[in-house]
Amino acid sequence: MFLNCHSYHSLRYGTLSIDDLISQASSLGVKELVLTDINTVTGIYEFKKKCEQQGIKPMVGVEVRKNNTLLYISIAKEFIGLEEVNRMLTSANCDSLELPLQPKLPNNFIIYPLTNIPEILKENEFIGIREEELNLLIRPQYKKLIIKMVILHPITFSTKKEYNLHRILRAIDNNELLSKLPESEVCSKKEYFRPPQEILDAYRNYPQIIHNTNSLLSQCSFDFAFETPRNRKFYTGSKKDDLQLLTRLAFAGLERRYSRNHEAATKRVEKELKVIDELNFSGYFLITWDIVRYSNSMGFMHVGRGSGANSIVAFCLGITDICPLELDLYFERFLNENRKSPPDFDIDWSWQDRDIILDYIFNRYGKEYVAFCGTNVEFKYRSIIREVGKAFGLPKEELDELSKYPERVFRDDIVKQVQKYGKLLEKFPNQRSMHSCGIIISEEPLTNFTALEMPPKGFPIVQWDMHVAEEIGFEKFDILSQRGLGTINDTVRLLEEKRGITVNIKDTAISKDEEICNDFLSKGKTIGCFYIESPAMRGLLRRLKCDNYKVLVAASSIIRPGVAQSGMMREYIFRHNNPDKFEYFHPVFEQQLGETYGIMVYQEDVIKIALHYGGVSAADGDILRRAMSGKGRSLSALQKVKDDFFASCRKQGHPEALSTEIYRQIESFAGYSFCKAHSASYAVESYQSLYLKVYYPLEFMVSVINNMGGFYRTEVYVHEARMSGGKILNPCVNMSEQQTTIYGDEIYLGFMHLEKVESKLGMLIPEERKKNGAYRSLEDFIRRIPIGIETLQILIFIGAFRFTGVPKNELLLKARVLLGDFKPERRFETLFEEPVKEFKFPELKRNIFEDAFDEIEILSFPVSCTPFDLLQTKYRGTVMASELVNHHKKEVKMLAYLISRKHVPTKRGTMYFGTWIDVEGNYFDTAHFPDCLEKFPFQGGGCYLLLGIVEVDFHFPTITITKMAKMPFMADPRYAHDEEKRFETQERMKEDVSMTFRAPYPQEHEIGLPRKKA
């Protein structure tokens, strides 16, 4: 009789999870249950599985509302009924069609509230009567309708506290104070589970209503085959034709990548094709190939990564650029008969090209069949405190403090309520959004399984997430984007455009085997290069003296938290540098992990050790793989793997201490590791960007800047361009574009870096210049470009009119005289009807450093000089960064400019790693421990005097800081007569701060593994 149950997927309305809903029903002996969330089918598949586990018959439908007004409840007679509702909701969500007041849904039962009864009820339509409405049935207009009535006892909450939570959710949804929330926005206080007999007793005088309810329930079912694959089955139209096409393409690619006579490659292709055919994946491969083929036809770059790069067929089709034979990658990691869930390809495009690829997929495979996976955006405690606090009427100042110090105990009763309900809302779904990259391409119209929604991005989404997609038979295509590929693409294009140089960057042999690239790599000279530019990665490259592709592949995975968390990153560095000073933990480690010195580096390594040392089953190995990929959601399944591992180890006679340590390392990988093919894909892209940096550094750095960088802020990449021989110039209306551009060795910063200059204007300035020639003067510029006085002043301050030879002071006065209160859109009718009068301006002198302070104010960094030139002190330190490696264990004093700092948790408290440049422009790193930071904290961006002890760790020097102080700039000459503002501008200097919230990594002595066997 519970025909109308809401879960918390009724967003900002229901308070019960699917688990809570079912467990409460089960505890009351309920045997039939209907899930009808508001305008969504998000929870229906989870609901079905979990009901059946509890012996409850599941039925599903949708409560249809418009602007929170209940129109009706639809309950599917069978699965086809859901399809009807999905199509109706999709038309409203995606095509802006009105929800019908009396729908045509023949395979559904429709239940209307008393407030919305149509004039004529169809055979499948009923009226829901609540217990509190029974007294209305004495009225003649309702009495005659009893024959069409059913019991309506909605479920929305379970306790008084949850009812209050429901009211808070409604207040948040309506952006209303709790005290002013209308009753019409809130559910009845009776919408909770009560014993079925108690509800039947309330309706005992109306046996017809009870009969109607039972009859309706008996006619409904929810049959669904979870194991059936639902992706588009065939590319060509049949399995046979798909296999023929895939085979032809694979062998054509084999000839291109290897040669027809390459025996190992040929055998591997034949073996993979057999497995792909047996598992019905030919169509999946061909659809992916088709997307990549279109990308290539558009001249786009892509990177196929993830476990898909284990496949030689994918390599031959051009989906990936990783040779599995070169790196000994085994196909079974990607596709095998034991894998419970089929794999997916992860493919990256430039962030600039991805939407074009998406448009192709939607158009090629049909908008009815293609959609993004959805995702539930959950309430987060810090932000929900603001939402709950607003509902309770707390002022902004209190909300700021509450959000900043969430754990602080407050005495105020209202604040305590806010904290209590804020905590309850953690992990509640708040809104549906689009998965960042997961695309579904279905065999049947997607509305057969879900209603679709249209988020602001403009691509439809299904109403459930990737986990549900996988459970009901969909495998997603991951269409990702990144800035690294944009940088590579743009560099190649810039070289062609500016210098007529063609670089075939897709030929990875030119970068991977290049001697100078490997030298740069080993020295950590990788700023701007994809994935290998962070301070931590550059430090690792130097510690490993990484000078070849295979070591870089390992480094790409070692840097991940999984290996570092286990403490084995440090052990790997030691063994790499001292290959004769360690012994393997166990013979299995030497046999299986000889290439990585017996250290588990990749996901495959963990599975190898679990199988060959631990003796776990292939099925358990798959559970481990999913956990390491962040896909495993079952803690009980992982616990079973752990139990099986230790039981098997004891059976084999392995020492308990060694088994415990090995499992500790295995556990650290959960959700934080790469498979080897993924690392290899990243390493190829890293090499491609490094090759361009080595041979075409200026064009490369311009492209990094235009793709809005990577790990660092724009200033760092500008510095890197200058260190590579570039002359950095401020924006100029006659030379600059919206993006940064290059002429020979002269790099003109783009208008995009001027925060207060709109992008439309930044694009209009060069467009007008190309049409009608260079701007001749300030007056000419104003005549041709619609611009206000404030924006014009920004351009003058940054020096965009320096070609005129007129000082900034004079240009500013002239601009104010010419524009004044002038409105740009009226410039043709007023200002320039007559020739502009010539004005005589007083001669004003400027300090040589005024430009630098203008630049800091507008760009946040100086261009016309270095930060060191602006210091009051002339001292530049006793040691330069290039000499640090020779000062092991010695104290040094250095003057340096702060680039970035990384927050690192330790057992003793917070510490930071800093990255700096010295006056020569070279980078170095520092370590700041908690006790030092208490006395000598960071004080924002700028130059610091540093005192510390140098520690050289495997070729890489770090200074452990004992003292530091921020050094003051000279007084700002623009404010010579304003004491308050003379030192304000230097506070605009920036730094990059990266925060890390994780358990502290273990120290070497805490791992406790001897390097020599006893």
UniProtKB/TrEMBL annotation:
Q: The organism sits in which domain of life?
A: Bacteria
Domain annotation Polymerase/histidinol phosphatase N-terminal: ranges: 1-68
Under the heading Pfam families, the entry gives: DNA_pol3_alpha, DNA_pol3_finger, HHH_6, PHP
EC class, as a word, reads: transferase
For this UniProt record, give its keywords in alphabetical order, as a comma-separated list.
DNA replication, DNA-directed DNA polymerase, Nucleotidyltransferase, Transferase
Kindly list the GO molecular function terms attached to this UniProt entry.
3'-5' exonuclease activity; DNA-directed DNA polymerase activity
Q: Which reaction does it catalyse?
A: DNA(n) + a 2'-deoxyribonucleoside 5'-triphosphate = DNA(n+1) + diphosphate
Check the UniProt entry and state the signal peptide residues, or none.
none
What are its E.C. numbers? 2.7.7.7
Name-wise, this protein is DNA-directed DNA polymerase
